[in-house]
Amino acid sequence: MRVLVLGSGGREHALARALQRDPSVTALHCAPGNPGTAEIASNHAIDMLNPTAVVELAQRLATDLVVIGPEAPLVAGVADALREAGLTCFGPDQAAARIEGSKAFAKEIMEAAGVPTARARVCESDGEVRDALAEFGAPYVVKDDGLAAGKGVVVTDDLDAAVAHAAACGRVVIEEYLDGPEVSLFALCDGQDAVPLVPAQDFKRAYDGDAGPNTGGMGAYTPLPWAPPGLVDEVMETVIRPTVAELRRRETPYVGVLYAGLALTSRGVRVIEFNARFGDPETQVVLDRLATPLAGLLQACALGGLAEDHKLTWRPGAAVTVVVAAEDYPAAPVKGDEITGLDEANAVPDAYVLHAGTAWDADGRLVSAGGRVLNVVGSGADQAAARAAAYEAVARIRLRGSHHRTDIAG
User: Fold this and answer.
1) Under 8 Å CB-to-CB from 214, ≥6 apart: which residues?
2) How far apart are the first and last CA of the chain?
3) pLDDT (tens digit per residue) in 131-176
4) Which CATH superfamily hosts domain 180-303?
5) 161: alpha, beta or left, given left = phi > 0 and alpha = psi -120 to 50?
6) pTM over 0.90
7) Domain residue spans of the chain
8) Rounded to the nearest 5 degrees, what angle is found at the Cα of 159, between the Cα atoms of 155 and 131?
9) Domain 2-93 = CATH 3.40.50.20
Protein backbone atom coordinates (compact mmCIF):
# COMPACT_ATOMS: atom_id res chain seq x y z
CA MET A 1 0.00 0.00 0.00
CA ARG A 2 1.33 3.44 -0.97
CA VAL A 3 0.42 6.01 1.69
CA LEU A 4 0.63 9.82 1.77
CA VAL A 5 0.37 11.66 5.11
CA LEU A 6 -0.56 15.35 4.98
CA GLY A 7 0.90 17.58 7.69
CA SER A 8 4.16 18.64 9.29
CA GLY A 9 3.83 18.25 13.06
CA GLY A 10 4.46 15.75 15.82
CA ARG A 11 1.12 14.07 15.17
CA GLU A 12 2.10 13.45 11.55
CA HIS A 13 5.52 12.10 12.57
CA ALA A 14 3.69 9.72 14.95
CA LEU A 15 1.29 8.67 12.18
CA ALA A 16 4.16 8.12 9.76
CA ARG A 17 6.06 6.07 12.35
CA ALA A 18 3.01 3.86 12.98
CA LEU A 19 2.38 3.45 9.25
CA GLN A 20 6.01 2.55 8.64
CA ARG A 21 5.60 -0.33 11.12
CA ASP A 22 2.72 -1.74 9.06
CA PRO A 23 4.11 -4.47 6.76
CA SER A 24 1.44 -3.70 4.13
CA VAL A 25 2.93 -0.23 3.52
CA THR A 26 5.32 -0.39 0.56
CA ALA A 27 5.85 3.37 0.05
CA LEU A 28 5.42 6.17 2.58
CA HIS A 29 5.24 9.87 1.71
CA CYS A 30 4.65 13.03 3.78
CA ALA A 31 3.63 16.47 2.57
CA PRO A 32 5.14 18.75 3.60
CA GLY A 33 6.52 16.60 6.46
CA ASN A 34 9.44 17.64 8.66
CA PRO A 35 13.07 16.60 9.31
CA GLY A 36 11.81 13.71 11.45
CA THR A 37 9.49 12.27 8.82
CA ALA A 38 12.29 12.63 6.26
CA GLU A 39 14.12 9.82 8.07
CA ILE A 40 11.31 7.32 7.47
CA ALA A 41 9.38 8.70 4.47
CA SER A 42 9.78 10.83 1.34
CA ASN A 43 8.90 14.48 2.05
CA HIS A 44 7.25 16.68 -0.58
CA ALA A 45 7.09 20.48 -0.36
CA ILE A 46 3.46 21.43 -0.87
CA ASP A 47 0.74 23.82 0.24
CA MET A 48 -1.50 21.30 1.99
CA LEU A 49 -4.41 23.79 2.00
CA ASN A 50 -4.47 23.76 -1.81
CA PRO A 51 -6.81 20.90 -2.83
CA THR A 52 -5.60 20.89 -6.45
CA ALA A 53 -1.94 20.61 -5.43
CA VAL A 54 -2.71 17.77 -3.01
CA VAL A 55 -4.70 15.84 -5.63
CA GLU A 56 -1.93 16.26 -8.22
CA LEU A 57 0.69 15.00 -5.76
CA ALA A 58 -1.41 12.01 -4.69
CA GLN A 59 -2.02 11.09 -8.34
CA ARG A 60 1.65 11.47 -9.25
CA LEU A 61 2.65 9.20 -6.36
CA ALA A 62 -0.10 6.69 -7.24
CA THR A 63 -1.18 6.64 -3.62
CA ASP A 64 -3.58 4.00 -2.33
CA LEU A 65 -4.43 6.03 0.79
CA VAL A 66 -4.14 9.70 1.79
CA VAL A 67 -4.20 10.38 5.55
CA ILE A 68 -4.97 13.99 6.48
CA GLY A 69 -3.37 14.98 9.78
CA PRO A 70 -4.34 18.58 10.68
CA GLU A 71 -7.75 20.21 10.78
CA ALA A 72 -7.08 23.10 8.36
CA PRO A 73 -6.91 20.98 5.15
CA LEU A 74 -10.11 19.18 6.19
CA VAL A 75 -11.98 22.45 6.68
CA ALA A 76 -10.49 23.67 3.37
CA GLY A 77 -12.14 20.74 1.54
CA VAL A 78 -9.03 18.74 0.67
CA ALA A 79 -10.75 15.43 1.45
CA ASP A 80 -13.64 16.35 -0.88
CA ALA A 81 -11.23 17.07 -3.73
CA LEU A 82 -9.35 13.79 -3.23
CA ARG A 83 -12.57 11.76 -3.26
CA GLU A 84 -13.88 13.60 -6.32
CA ALA A 85 -10.66 12.59 -8.09
CA GLY A 86 -11.30 8.95 -7.18
CA LEU A 87 -8.60 8.77 -4.50
CA THR A 88 -9.00 6.96 -1.17
CA CYS A 89 -8.83 9.39 1.75
CA PHE A 90 -8.92 9.08 5.54
CA GLY A 91 -10.46 12.30 6.84
CA PRO A 92 -13.93 13.86 6.85
CA ASP A 93 -15.17 16.01 4.01
CA GLN A 94 -15.65 19.75 4.44
CA ALA A 95 -19.29 19.51 5.56
CA ALA A 96 -18.58 16.91 8.26
CA ALA A 97 -15.36 18.67 9.37
CA ARG A 98 -17.51 21.61 10.45
CA ILE A 99 -17.89 19.66 13.68
CA GLU A 100 -14.47 21.13 14.50
CA GLY A 101 -14.53 24.13 12.18
CA SER A 102 -17.53 25.64 13.98
CA LYS A 103 -18.19 25.25 17.70
CA ALA A 104 -21.76 26.44 17.08
CA PHE A 105 -22.33 23.70 14.49
CA ALA A 106 -20.94 21.10 16.90
CA LYS A 107 -23.43 22.24 19.55
CA GLU A 108 -26.24 21.98 17.00
CA ILE A 109 -25.25 18.41 16.14
CA MET A 110 -24.97 17.43 19.81
CA GLU A 111 -28.38 18.86 20.60
CA ALA A 112 -29.98 17.04 17.68
CA ALA A 113 -28.26 13.77 18.63
CA GLY A 114 -29.00 14.04 22.35
CA VAL A 115 -25.30 14.08 23.24
CA PRO A 116 -24.53 15.28 26.79
CA THR A 117 -22.61 18.57 26.74
CA ALA A 118 -22.38 21.94 28.49
CA ARG A 119 -25.21 24.44 28.20
CA ALA A 120 -24.11 27.12 25.76
CA ARG A 121 -25.06 30.25 23.84
CA VAL A 122 -23.76 31.49 20.49
CA CYS A 123 -22.95 35.22 20.75
CA GLU A 124 -22.04 37.84 18.16
CA SER A 125 -22.47 41.15 20.02
CA ASP A 126 -21.08 42.63 23.22
CA GLY A 127 -24.55 42.63 24.73
CA GLU A 128 -25.12 38.93 23.96
CA VAL A 129 -21.70 38.10 25.37
CA ARG A 130 -22.31 39.93 28.65
CA ASP A 131 -25.77 38.36 29.03
CA ALA A 132 -24.38 34.85 28.51
CA LEU A 133 -21.47 35.41 30.89
CA ALA A 134 -23.89 36.65 33.54
CA GLU A 135 -26.18 33.65 32.97
CA PHE A 136 -23.47 30.99 33.33
CA GLY A 137 -21.24 32.79 35.87
CA ALA A 138 -17.57 32.20 36.67
CA PRO A 139 -15.37 30.46 35.73
CA TYR A 140 -16.17 31.94 32.33
CA VAL A 141 -15.71 29.73 29.25
CA VAL A 142 -15.39 31.61 25.95
CA LYS A 143 -14.65 29.73 22.70
CA ASP A 144 -13.82 31.17 19.30
CA ASP A 145 -16.43 29.69 16.92
CA GLY A 146 -13.79 28.96 14.26
CA LEU A 147 -10.45 27.15 14.07
CA ALA A 148 -7.81 28.48 16.45
CA ALA A 149 -5.17 25.70 16.54
CA GLY A 150 -6.26 24.59 20.00
CA LYS A 151 -5.78 28.05 21.49
CA GLY A 152 -9.17 29.71 20.91
CA VAL A 153 -10.58 28.87 24.33
CA VAL A 154 -10.31 31.07 27.40
CA VAL A 155 -11.34 29.83 30.84
CA THR A 156 -11.06 32.61 33.40
CA ASP A 157 -12.56 34.12 36.54
CA ASP A 158 -11.81 37.59 35.12
CA LEU A 159 -14.94 39.03 33.51
CA ASP A 160 -13.00 41.71 31.63
CA ALA A 161 -10.65 39.08 30.15
CA ALA A 162 -13.62 36.98 29.03
CA VAL A 163 -15.28 39.98 27.36
CA ALA A 164 -12.00 40.99 25.70
CA HIS A 165 -11.44 37.48 24.27
CA ALA A 166 -14.97 37.43 22.88
CA ALA A 167 -14.44 40.84 21.26
CA ALA A 168 -11.18 39.66 19.68
CA CYS A 169 -12.85 36.55 18.21
CA GLY A 170 -16.11 38.04 16.90
CA ARG A 171 -18.48 35.07 16.92
CA VAL A 172 -18.10 32.96 20.05
CA VAL A 173 -19.73 30.14 21.96
CA ILE A 174 -20.07 30.84 25.69
CA GLU A 175 -20.61 27.81 27.89
CA GLU A 176 -21.18 26.79 31.44
CA TYR A 177 -17.98 25.57 33.11
CA LEU A 178 -17.57 21.79 33.34
CA ASP A 179 -15.87 20.43 36.45
CA GLY A 180 -13.89 17.20 36.68
CA PRO A 181 -10.90 15.63 34.91
CA GLU A 182 -10.64 15.73 31.13
CA VAL A 183 -10.25 12.72 28.85
CA SER A 184 -9.58 12.45 25.12
CA LEU A 185 -11.13 9.56 23.20
CA PHE A 186 -10.57 8.97 19.49
CA ALA A 187 -12.96 6.86 17.44
CA LEU A 188 -12.21 5.62 13.92
CA CYS A 189 -15.30 6.06 11.72
CA ASP A 190 -16.26 4.80 8.27
CA GLY A 191 -19.43 6.88 7.90
CA GLN A 192 -21.59 4.23 9.52
CA ASP A 193 -19.68 2.36 12.22
CA ALA A 194 -17.07 3.50 14.73
CA VAL A 195 -14.31 1.76 16.70
CA PRO A 196 -12.69 3.38 19.76
CA LEU A 197 -9.00 3.75 20.45
CA VAL A 198 -7.77 3.88 24.06
CA PRO A 199 -8.46 7.02 26.13
CA ALA A 200 -5.65 9.44 26.89
CA GLN A 201 -5.19 12.61 28.90
CA ASP A 202 -3.68 15.82 27.54
CA PHE A 203 -2.07 18.64 29.55
CA LYS A 204 -3.18 21.95 28.01
CA ARG A 205 -1.62 24.60 30.25
CA ALA A 206 1.90 25.80 29.55
CA TYR A 207 3.43 25.32 33.00
CA ASP A 208 3.58 22.87 35.90
CA GLY A 209 0.52 22.56 38.09
CA ASP A 210 -1.76 23.55 35.20
CA ALA A 211 -0.57 27.15 35.42
CA GLY A 212 -0.18 29.62 32.57
CA PRO A 213 -1.98 30.04 29.26
CA ASN A 214 -3.67 27.32 27.22
CA THR A 215 -1.48 25.71 24.57
CA GLY A 216 -1.94 23.11 21.87
CA GLY A 217 -0.91 20.54 24.51
CA MET A 218 2.28 20.07 26.58
CA GLY A 219 2.14 16.31 27.08
CA ALA A 220 -0.11 13.27 27.34
CA TYR A 221 -0.30 9.73 28.66
CA THR A 222 -2.26 6.50 28.33
CA PRO A 223 -3.80 4.37 29.81
CA LEU A 224 -5.75 6.21 32.50
CA PRO A 225 -5.79 3.94 35.58
CA TRP A 226 -8.23 6.27 37.35
CA ALA A 227 -10.85 6.31 34.58
CA PRO A 228 -14.11 4.60 35.52
CA PRO A 229 -14.63 1.08 34.11
CA GLY A 230 -17.00 1.11 31.21
CA LEU A 231 -16.10 4.69 30.24
CA VAL A 232 -15.27 3.83 26.63
CA ASP A 233 -18.48 1.84 26.13
CA GLU A 234 -20.52 4.66 27.65
CA VAL A 235 -18.92 7.30 25.43
CA MET A 236 -19.40 5.17 22.31
CA GLU A 237 -23.10 4.69 23.10
CA THR A 238 -23.97 8.20 24.30
CA VAL A 239 -21.56 10.36 22.27
CA ILE A 240 -19.79 8.81 19.28
CA ARG A 241 -22.47 6.63 17.68
CA PRO A 242 -25.30 9.18 18.06
CA THR A 243 -23.05 11.86 16.52
CA VAL A 244 -22.03 9.65 13.59
CA ALA A 245 -25.69 8.72 13.07
CA GLU A 246 -26.80 12.37 13.09
CA LEU A 247 -24.15 13.35 10.53
CA ARG A 248 -25.17 10.42 8.35
CA ARG A 249 -28.82 11.48 8.67
CA ARG A 250 -27.79 14.90 7.35
CA GLU A 251 -26.12 13.19 4.37
CA THR A 252 -22.65 14.23 5.54
CA PRO A 253 -21.27 10.81 6.58
CA TYR A 254 -18.26 11.08 8.86
CA VAL A 255 -15.18 9.25 7.58
CA GLY A 256 -12.04 9.68 9.64
CA VAL A 257 -11.21 10.03 13.31
CA LEU A 258 -13.76 11.71 15.57
CA TYR A 259 -12.02 13.10 18.64
CA ALA A 260 -14.22 13.67 21.67
CA GLY A 261 -12.79 15.96 24.35
CA LEU A 262 -14.66 14.92 27.49
CA ALA A 263 -15.12 16.13 31.06
CA LEU A 264 -15.94 13.53 33.70
CA THR A 265 -18.16 15.82 35.75
CA SER A 266 -20.03 15.25 39.00
CA ARG A 267 -23.15 14.93 36.80
CA GLY A 268 -21.64 12.40 34.40
CA VAL A 269 -19.70 12.49 31.12
CA ARG A 270 -20.02 15.72 29.12
CA VAL A 271 -18.51 16.63 25.73
CA ILE A 272 -16.28 19.70 25.89
CA GLU A 273 -15.56 19.74 22.16
CA PHE A 274 -15.21 17.62 19.04
CA ASN A 275 -12.19 17.61 16.75
CA ALA A 276 -12.18 16.21 13.24
CA ARG A 277 -8.68 14.73 13.41
CA PHE A 278 -6.23 12.96 15.69
CA GLY A 279 -5.40 15.03 18.77
CA ASP A 280 -1.89 16.32 19.27
CA PRO A 281 -0.06 15.17 21.47
CA GLU A 282 -2.43 12.34 22.54
CA THR A 283 -1.92 10.58 19.19
CA GLN A 284 1.74 10.15 20.04
CA VAL A 285 0.98 7.95 23.05
CA VAL A 286 -2.11 6.20 21.67
CA LEU A 287 -0.32 5.08 18.50
CA ASP A 288 2.72 4.03 20.52
CA ARG A 289 0.55 1.35 22.16
CA LEU A 290 -1.46 0.31 19.08
CA ALA A 291 -0.45 -3.18 17.92
CA THR A 292 -3.04 -3.51 15.13
CA PRO A 293 -1.47 -2.46 11.79
CA LEU A 294 -2.57 1.14 11.19
CA ALA A 295 -2.71 1.40 7.39
CA GLY A 296 -5.28 -1.36 6.94
CA LEU A 297 -7.39 0.12 9.72
CA LEU A 298 -7.44 3.61 8.16
CA GLN A 299 -8.06 2.18 4.70
CA ALA A 300 -11.05 0.21 6.05
CA CYS A 301 -12.50 3.47 7.37
CA ALA A 302 -11.90 5.24 4.07
CA LEU A 303 -13.52 2.48 2.03
CA GLY A 304 -16.48 1.96 4.36
CA GLY A 305 -15.41 -1.50 5.49
CA LEU A 306 -15.00 -1.02 9.22
CA ALA A 307 -16.88 -3.60 11.28
CA GLU A 308 -18.38 -2.35 14.54
CA ASP A 309 -17.01 -5.40 16.33
CA HIS A 310 -13.53 -4.80 14.90
CA LYS A 311 -11.28 -5.62 17.85
CA LEU A 312 -8.03 -3.71 18.07
CA THR A 313 -4.98 -5.12 19.81
CA TRP A 314 -2.79 -3.07 22.14
CA ARG A 315 0.71 -3.39 23.48
CA PRO A 316 0.71 -3.84 27.26
CA GLY A 317 2.05 -1.12 29.54
CA ALA A 318 1.90 2.64 29.31
CA ALA A 319 3.14 5.53 27.16
CA VAL A 320 3.96 9.13 28.13
CA THR A 321 4.89 12.03 25.87
CA VAL A 322 6.50 15.30 26.96
CA VAL A 323 6.52 18.36 24.68
CA VAL A 324 9.71 20.41 24.45
CA ALA A 325 8.55 23.93 23.59
CA ALA A 326 10.43 26.92 22.22
CA GLU A 327 11.32 29.93 24.32
CA ASP A 328 8.27 32.19 24.82
CA TYR A 329 5.74 29.56 23.70
CA PRO A 330 2.76 30.01 23.39
CA ALA A 331 2.89 33.83 23.24
CA ALA A 332 5.67 34.48 20.69
CA PRO A 333 7.81 31.36 20.19
CA VAL A 334 11.43 31.99 19.26
CA LYS A 335 12.48 30.15 16.09
CA GLY A 336 15.83 29.35 14.53
CA ASP A 337 17.71 28.04 17.57
CA GLU A 338 19.87 24.95 17.08
CA ILE A 339 18.68 21.63 18.52
CA THR A 340 21.26 19.07 19.67
CA GLY A 341 21.29 15.88 21.70
CA LEU A 342 18.66 13.98 19.71
CA ASP A 343 20.89 10.96 19.10
CA GLU A 344 21.54 10.75 22.84
CA ALA A 345 17.82 11.09 23.56
CA ASN A 346 16.91 8.40 21.04
CA ALA A 347 19.51 6.11 22.66
CA VAL A 348 17.52 6.01 25.92
CA PRO A 349 15.88 2.55 26.17
CA ASP A 350 12.11 2.67 25.52
CA ALA A 351 12.21 6.33 24.42
CA TYR A 352 12.25 8.17 21.10
CA VAL A 353 11.86 11.70 19.77
CA LEU A 354 9.20 12.90 17.34
CA HIS A 355 9.70 16.16 15.44
CA ALA A 356 6.90 18.71 15.82
CA GLY A 357 8.30 22.13 14.90
CA THR A 358 11.76 21.63 13.39
CA ALA A 359 13.57 22.55 10.18
CA TRP A 360 17.01 22.50 8.58
CA ASP A 361 18.64 25.93 8.34
CA ALA A 362 20.85 27.17 5.49
CA ASP A 363 23.90 25.64 7.20
CA GLY A 364 22.27 22.25 7.56
CA ARG A 365 21.69 22.56 11.29
CA LEU A 366 18.50 21.24 12.88
CA VAL A 367 16.69 24.27 14.34
CA SER A 368 13.42 25.14 16.03
CA ALA A 369 10.68 26.18 13.61
CA GLY A 370 7.53 26.26 15.73
CA GLY A 371 6.15 26.62 19.23
CA ARG A 372 6.03 22.96 20.13
CA VAL A 373 9.39 21.75 18.84
CA LEU A 374 9.71 18.11 19.88
CA ASN A 375 7.59 15.33 21.38
CA VAL A 376 9.57 12.91 23.53
CA VAL A 377 7.79 9.56 23.98
CA GLY A 378 8.59 7.03 26.67
CA SER A 379 7.00 3.61 27.11
CA GLY A 380 7.22 1.05 29.86
CA ALA A 381 5.54 -1.68 31.85
CA ASP A 382 3.62 0.96 33.81
CA GLN A 383 3.10 4.71 33.91
CA ALA A 384 6.06 5.35 36.21
CA ALA A 385 8.48 3.47 33.93
CA ALA A 386 7.15 5.20 30.80
CA ARG A 387 7.42 8.59 32.51
CA ALA A 388 10.98 7.92 33.65
CA ALA A 389 12.06 6.96 30.12
CA ALA A 390 10.49 10.08 28.60
CA TYR A 391 12.09 12.47 31.09
CA GLU A 392 15.50 10.79 30.85
CA ALA A 393 15.41 11.43 27.09
CA VAL A 394 14.18 15.02 27.55
CA ALA A 395 17.18 15.70 29.81
CA ARG A 396 19.56 14.88 26.94
CA ILE A 397 18.09 17.43 24.52
CA ARG A 398 19.62 20.90 24.23
CA LEU A 399 17.64 23.85 22.85
CA ARG A 400 18.37 27.35 24.12
CA GLY A 401 15.48 28.86 26.06
CA SER A 402 13.26 25.80 25.69
CA HIS A 403 10.83 24.75 28.36
CA HIS A 404 8.77 21.68 29.23
CA ARG A 405 6.43 20.62 31.98
CA THR A 406 7.96 18.38 34.66
CA ASP A 407 4.63 16.99 35.91
CA ILE A 408 3.24 15.13 32.89
CA ALA A 409 1.63 11.88 34.08
CA GLY A 410 2.91 12.68 37.58
Assistant:
1) 150, 151, 153, 154, 155, 204, 205, 206, 330
2) 40
3) 999 999 999 999 999 876 656 888 999 999 999 999 999 899 999 9
4) ATP-grasp fold, B domain (3.30.470.20)
5) alpha
6) yes
7) 2-93, 120-175, 180-303, 318-399
8) 100
9) yes
